[in-house]
Amino acid sequence: MSGVRAPRFALFRALLNVQFGLSAVRARIRRREKLWQLAAAELGMLLVAAVIVGVVAAFTWALLQAVSQLGQPEVVLTLAHAAAATLVFLFAIGFVLSAFFFSNDTGLLFSWPLSARQILSAKFAVVLASEYLTIAPLLIPVYVVYARSVPVA
Helix, strand, or coil here: 24? Predict the structure, then answer.
């Protein structure tokens, strides 16, 4: 990795670490402090994600059966992408405001030996990663159900 790109990726990793609280989780695991809370939170998040994925898959399958009778199974993908775009728009308002407006680290980051473009692009990349994680439970089940149900010639 070249010397110019290394600080940019280090900043991106650090901002991801702050966004998702990964170092706090690692520190709790190392100290073996309240591990049951971490396990309960992880189990709860997995359960909620499984319910969301199951509901999306069931809705996609039912919608696919209905529109396949009309000969238009592609409508499912169109509706899924429209729903994902709406979801991204709604969540992006909060993500962008928290990353760019309400963050207290911007003044500190501008004192680093990085250009403003590198700092802002790293912050934008963190927002983008958060958005991708937001729409993944919506789009992945749609793609899987569509790929398994629609014959491709």
Answer: helix
- Which residues, 6 or more positions from 22, have their beta carbon under 8 angstroms from its beta carbon? 16
Distance CA 21, CA 36 (A): 17
| Burial profile 60-71: b = 16 or more Cβ within 10 angstroms, e = fewer | bbebbeebeeee
Taking CA atoms, 59 is separated from 10, 52, 56, 102, 142, in Å, by: 41, 11, 5, 37, 9
Query: Tell me: the pLDDT tens digits for 13-52?
Result: 888 888 887 777 777 778 887 888 878 888 999 999 999 9
List C-alpha distances in Å: 9 to 3, 4, 123, 126.
11, 10, 11, 11
The gap from C-alpha 77 to its chain's centroid, in whole angstroms, comes to 19
Give 20: exposed, middle or buried? Use CB within 10 Å, 0-12, 13-18, 19+.
middle
The HSE-up count of residue 13 (CA atoms within 13 Å, CB side) is: 7
Give the global pTM. Answer: 0.78
Q: Kindly report, residue by residue over 93-133, the tens digit of the pLDDT.
A: 998 998 888 888 878 888 888 888 888 899 999 999 999 99
